[in-house]
Amino acid sequence: MITTTSVLAATGPGFLSPSGVEIAFLLVGVVTLGAAVITVTTKQLVHAALWLVVALGGLAVEYLLLTAEFIAWVQVLIYVGSVVVLLLFGLMLTRAPIGRSPDADSGNRPVALAVAVAAGAALVWVVVDAFRHTWIDLEGPVQGSTEVTGRILFQHWVLPFEALSVLLLAALVGAIVLSRKNAAAAEPGTTGGPGSAGEPGRPNPGRRTRTPGRPAKETRSRPAQEAPGRPPTADPSEPPQKEQR
Amino acid sequence: MHLAYPAVLAALLFCVGLYGVLARRNAILVLMSVELMLNAVNLNLVAFDVWLRDTLHSGQALTLFTIAIAAAEIGIGLAIVLMVYRNRGTSDIDKLRDTAETAGEDHDPDDATEAPDGPAQKAEAAA
Q: What's chain A's average pLDDT?
């Protein structure tokens, strides 16, 4: 290994004397990787989403260092701006506990760790072995500026771009169809009171047809029945947790 | 810049995301790990596009498409998670075992649908 690195230092621009861009890339990469590891290991669910912001923002900086400006700003806009906010809304709507939740990791954690370490070792070995002698030339004209990206996107890639807009529309319609309350399954008898939620633990179509005023009332009465912040996995026979939405 | 830096970082990020997908129990945390894996792929695409100096810039175009598809995926995924939470009262993917095969059960699909312990398992999964 020492001989290969010395050979590399002789042939390439210098493996042992990294440039400033490489040092910056390495530092931001360490931060990104650390934030990603915390994201997948922390017990606090909201903190996981916030560390994901750090990881995705670090990746945006990496794109900037690779002279892909437009991708970097799109990354900031889409991921940090909307995807993380969506995830936080999802955590909120599924009543994720604010504090530490002991059941954030499942039982197959050692197997997952073994698989991830094996895959990581294999991938890093193969990648380093394959690209030992390749260097990215960051000099010259910027390759990812907004002008360049816009030109290639609307000259060469305009048809996939339009197809992608259709896909986004389909995803939008699908998300609305999935998440709207099913008005056709409304049952007049089950919308009467909180005690008429049907048998506990059973998927009940009448449960999804609540009027908008009722969940707020139950939200207020909820902390009296159950400790706040608990996930609703403890007792399936609690009717209010299923009447939230 | 050495190409190994972004490639190794992408590989490590992908494996962190892989660990998260396998080890997490909350469905939204699994979606977060999927986002990490998609971002690792994006970094690879950008790095190789810059390295190859592609005139069509297919790597950067594909990165934009991947970002858009990831946004669509997270929207649909969260809608599914919210619907499961609304119907089952939990977003714990370890408890969504309606289609799982237990060890002692007969694997004949005709028997599996008519198995006497089917409703009991469903009630357990819904709990």
A: 76
